[in-house]
Amino acid sequence: TSDLVQEISAASEEQSAGVSQINTAMSQLSQITQQNASASKSWLQPLLKKWRSGGT
Known about the structure:
The protein is an all-alpha fold. Helix content is 91%, strand content 0%. It has one domain (1-56). The N and C termini lie far apart (76 Å).
């Protein structure tokens, strides 16, 4: 029984570390997505303005 408890404890710690890594990756992905959206908006706004004014 003691061995089983130790195995469960080790697996739980491993799972916790994995979840932490996933959370970090998701946070980084979210930050990159926001940066990409901001860059796209900055790039598209002048083009839309030019298009709306009939420019080429």
